[in-house]
Amino acid sequence: MATPLTELSKALADAVESAGRNVVAVHEGGRSGVSGTLWRDNIVVAAAHTIAGLKNVTLTLPDGSTGSAEFLGARARSDLALLRLAKPFDGAVPSAAASALRVGEMVLAVGRRPAGGLLASHGIISGVVSSDQPQLGRGENWLRLDLQPFSGFSGGPLVNAEGRVIGINTSGARGSVFTIPAAAIDRAIATLLAKGHIPSPYIGIGMQPVRLPGGGESGARRALLVVMVEPEGPAEQAGLLVGDIVTGLDGSGLNSTSDLERVLDPDSVGRSVRLGIVRGGKPKEIAVTIGDRK
Amino acid sequence: MAAGVNPAGELSISGSTGFAQIAELLRAVTVHVSVSTGRYGRGFGSGVVWSANGLVITNAHVAPGASALVEFQNGRRFPASVIGRDANHDLAGLQIRGAVFSPPLVRDSATLRVGELVIAMGNPLGEIGAVSAGMVHSAGNGDYLEADIRLAPGNSGGPLADSEGRIVGINTCIANGMGVAIGTRRIIPFVAQLMSSRN
To answer: pTM for the complete prediction?
Structure first.
């Protein structure tokens, strides 16, 4: 009896099964394991917060066998960790076209239990988190989901109704579910393969927002007071001092620390930024080269 | 959603009739089970009419005593006696008499795939015959099913069905936000045991 409902049911089960060919269980993550996604070239993607501090993990692979994987690197700010599976694995994830994603689209979260079975829940894309957020790279929009999170879902893929992978899921505040987009994962893997590690861009200062006198009708001008300069960091080498007030970045104003974090995208290491500062009451400009915190 | 003309010449929208048709199938076999709990009033849950001769399957925790009251959604009421119990799997069998009942289609829960659509009917929070729909979350070996579906107290003992309306389990509890059902893989031997001990 083929009704639209039975056809939809079969299509969804097929989508879970198809995406499940790239889903692994990470035994050490979470309370009872978390998920990971075999992305390509033996690289397993997981949610960084679930495996923090681990150098090696045990996996249950899609064929039910056990494997081990070595931690390669993480982009902690986007909760992305990459591991390398010790055994060879063929088959890249079937990625969905990012441009085709729409709010309201039906999606499935897929995971795997350490014992081997697949797990799934369903929901819809409820929104897109703008790539203006400081933790995201340029053009990397996170997705906010209306979907039931389940134990161990982090690191598993978000798939569309055709079983194509949109990204990997992780948890946000108050039980919310987010998806790290495939574009961010592809980029992190490309960087890892090209450079041998995942850069962690930084300039090495601690800052505190302050108000400056002389604001217009809209209120006081805001700027950032330097309260800490990391020894031997890029900012110290550029001559920044504790007590400097940072008022501008590359020629435009600066209101909050996230304005600065935004330029520290994953590809920014080696790039120079111009910081407009006030020191001893006098404006000054200092060029800082973004470093890589190893 | 597919709109079309059926053989009788009426316009039908098959996409929207899917869940409604299954709800109709389940409505005929889903009953309200209530028990007197003495000074605390009445407890209630749901049940599934399993056989033409009046066997009703529910959760053991829904029918803790020796008798219960079974009520169909059309208002027919039957006194029921508890004829068997499997406390380990939270199953109970009730017997009602006085009519010939139409049993549901049953599917072996071990054949379910993760991602399949499922439909629950029951009396959550006293709402008679409420329907919810979701997806198989975890299948295991079919003894227990987990479903990404909205359930509430009062769904206990009611049916979980597949996209064709075949019963795959009895909704039993909610764990970590997921509905947990006892699968037909576990219920079928329980029913066989009740039948053999009755004969």
So the answer is: 0.83
- Measured between CB atoms, which of A4, A10, A120 is closest to B135? A120
For chain B, the domains span 3-24+105-187, 29-103
Tell me the CATH number for domain B29-103: 2.40.10.10
Q: How confident is the model at residue B197 (pLDDT cuts 50, 70, 90)?
A: confident
Please indicate whether the domains covering B3-24+105-187 and B29-103 agree at the CATH topology level. yes
Q: What is the mean pLDDT of chain A?
A: 88
Position B125 scores a pLDDT of 85
Q: How far is A120 from chain B (nearest CA, A)?
A: 5
Is the pLDDT at B13 greater than 60? The verdict is no
Residues of B in contact with A113 (CB under 8 A): 138
Q: Which CATH number fits domain B3-24+105-187: 2.40.10.10, 3.40.50.300, 2.60.40.10, 3.60.15.10?
A: 2.40.10.10
ipTM of this predicted complex? 0.85
DSSP string, chain B: --EEE-TTS-EEEHHHHHHHHHHHHHHTTEEEEEEE-GGG-EEEEEEEE-STT-EEEE-TTT--SSEEEEE-TTS-EEEEEEEEEEGGGTEEEEE--SS--PPPPB--GGG--TT-EEEEEE-GGG-TTEEEEEEEEE-TTSSEEEEE----TT-TT-EEE-TTS-EEEEEEEEETTEEEEEEHHHHHHHHHHHHHHH-
**Closest chain A residue to B163, measured at CA:** A6
Q: What radius of gyration do chain B's Cα atoms show?
A: 17
What are the two backbone dihedrals, phi and then psi, of residue B184, each rounded to the nearest 5 degrees?
-65, -25
